[in-house]
Specification:
With about 325 residues, the chain is of the alpha+beta class. The protein folds into two domains: about 200 residues, Multidrug efflux transporter AcrB transmembrane domain (Multidrug efflux transporter AcrB transmembrane fold), CATH 1.20.1640; about 80 residues, Alpha-Beta Plaits. It is built from ten helices and four strands, in the order ααβαββαβαααααα. Helix 8 runs antiparallel to helix 9. The longest helix is centred in the C-terminal third of the chain and has 34 residues. It is elongated. The termini are far apart.
């Protein structure tokens, strides 16, 4: 049984409401980034992978409160401490502050040993990243996303037209901005797996958009497609691909929700970013990419008509001058 087999929704007519909704989400994300800069010193909650420093995961035999951990590591001057799943596990993130990485790690272990019995806790994991490596990873992550945009634009321009590629890039930028706003709002730690999730969102969003664009192209090539009203043609194309869009997104979300529930805290942030990306990507392929394509198409058509009109006037003047 096909879902939405006889769907006939007016999606393009809802463009104004969709744009307002998207702008509200983007503005909320930008405000969150500004607040983060003032409170934590950066627009996102960068993990050790990008900011540099030491990460130490500590597991206690008995339940320990975050206040006790903070008191053991210096009180108000303690490094950021977050609970890691269970009540007896914590992650300590210490910046380098010009010190050697090994010295930072040893100092934290000594502070914990002084406050708690050595046998009452164990160091499960330690990670250290230098500030130069963190800065390099930040720039390379940004370049990876930028190159994905460029290659996508080239591919869609060859496969379809430049106009289709431009509309797809607009929708993808929209998705990434909302996702980054979500990360900033909830201060989800950005690590290498988070960047992998963002790149996955880029691919998913583009795939969903290309399916809609492919149907638009098919309908344009059909008999009478060029003479059909553009709004009606795009609405028809979206409705025809709606069953595939809903089923694909629905099955993907079921898997991601299962991972969120049973996958544990290790992949929780990665899964949450993917869930947001799938929802936003599905939404943008319908309410952002297609209206953007319509707007770009009309802009190009107006310029072509204007250029054609100028050429005709030029010819008329030339003929008149000749006469």
């Amino acid at each position: 049984m096909r879902l939405f087999e006889k769907a006939n929704y007016s999606f393009i007519e809802k463009t104004s409401a969709a744009i307002i909704f998207s702008l509200l989400l983007i503005v909320a994300g930008v405000v969150s980034m500004i607040i983060n800069v003032q409170s934590i010193g950066s627009w996102q909650n960068y993990g050790v992978d990008f900011s540099g420093g030491s990460l130490i995961q500590v597991r206690f035999e008995d339940a320990v409160s975050a206040a006790e951990m903070r008191s053991a590591l210096g009180g108000a001057e303690a490094p950021p401490i977050t609970r890691f799943g269970e009540d007896n596990e914590f992650v300590v993130r210490a910046g380098l502050d010009g010190e050697e990485m090994e010295i930072v790690r040893q100092r934290i272990e000594q502070q914990l040993s002084a406050a708690f019995q050595q046998s009452s806790f164990s160091i499960v994991r330690t990670e250290t990243v230098g500030p130069k490596i963190g800065a390099e990873l930040q720039s390379k992550a940004g370049l990876a996303i930028l190159f994905s945009f460029i290659l996508t634009l080239i591919y869609i321009a060859i496969r379809f037209q430049f106009r289709f590629g431009l509309a797809a890039i607009i929708a993808t930028i929209h998705d990434i901005m909302i996702t980054l706003g979500f990360l900033a709002l909830f201060r989800i730690e950005i690590a290498l797996p988070t960047v992998a999730a963002i790149l996955t969102i880029v691919g998913y969003s583009l795939n969903d958009t290309i399916v809609v664009f492919d149907r638009i192209r098919e309908n344009l090539k059909s008999r009478g497609g060029r003479r059909q009203d553009p709004v009606a043609l795009i609405n028809q194309s979206i409705n025809e691909t709606l069953p595939r869009t809903i089923l694909t997104s629905g099955t993907t979300l079921v898997v991601l929700l299962a991972l969120l529930v049973v996958g544990g805290v290790v992949i929780r942030d990665f899964t949450m970013v993917l869930i947001v990306g799938v929802v936003v990507g599905t939404y943008s392929s319908i309410f952002i990419a297609s209206p953007a394509l319509l707007k770009i198409q009309r802009t190009f058509d107006d310029r072509e008509q204007l250029s054609s009109g100028k050429k005709k006037r030029t010819r008329s003047v030339s003929v008149s001058a000749g006469v």
